[in-house]
Amino acid sequence: MQTVDFNYFHLRDGDRVLDLGCGEGRHLIGALLAADVTAIGVDLSREDLLSGAKKTDDWALSVNEPRRPALAQASGYALPFPDAAFDAVICSEVLEHIPQLSRILNEINRVLRPGGHLVVSVPRRWPERICWWLSSDYHLQLGGHLRIFRIEKLKAMLEAFPLVFYHKHGAHALHVPYWWLRCLFWRNPESWWVKTYHRLLVWDLMKSPWLTRTIDRLCNPWMGKSVVLYYRKQEKAK
Q1: Domain encompassing residue 228
Q2: 205 has which bridge partners?
Q3: How many domains does the chain have?
Q4: Which of 125, 202, 210, 219 is most buried, most CB within 10 Å of its CB?
Q5: Is the full-model pTM beyond 0.85?
Q6: Is the dihedral of CA 164, 166, 172, 173 positive or negative?
Q7: pLDDT tens digits along 143-202
Q8: Contact (CB, 8 A) for 90 and 27
Q9: Would residue 144 be called left, alpha or beta, if left means φ above 0 and alpha means ψ between -120 and 50 degrees?
Q10: What is the CATH number of the domain that holds 138?
Q11: Residue 66: inside a domain, yes or no?
């Protein structure tokens, strides 16, 4: 499941791409499919990295792909890379979990080269507020969401750096009702409603039928679970 649309996130052969908070590596695979890049994923969770290594390896073997993403356990507050090390940085569904937002934004800016591209995604405000209202456990669990973003405020924080905004879209509108159901039945994850809607999402992901794809596309601008922001870092003045 890709949140980032690589039609807008411009990768070129030879680019070095960092996925900060890569989880199990879904966007690392997307980056490798988009161009002949060096893809590096960083996450705090060792379990997610181990699972991601297996999943990306299974994918590569299934399509006879010789390339593999590199994975490392590290903190986003102190990335183990030199300044301007990357041509592109992905930070998808991460910032809502971060206590010290300014520290991680500073690190993103530090490792992204001038002229490079950044994509950030966070949960959309109004569906997220309903999730919080339906279940406090949804965001109070270990590793849960610490904040609900106002997109204009987040854009202002990003644009305080030498980052130029160029595109925005929503993603995963069909996932919004699933999370409302999941929150409503938080203490009963085996609920028929939750399991049935989850099967619908898996079917949609595997089959991509025109009806659900059309509904998702029409609803994403106003209901997409994620809001995705694309930036280009300004070149240094000569």
Answers
A1: 16-233
A2: none
A3: 1
A4: 219
A5: yes
A6: positive
A7: 889 999 999 999 999 999 999 999 999 999 999 999 999 999 999 999 999 999 999 999
A8: yes
A9: beta
A10: 3.40.50.150
A11: yes
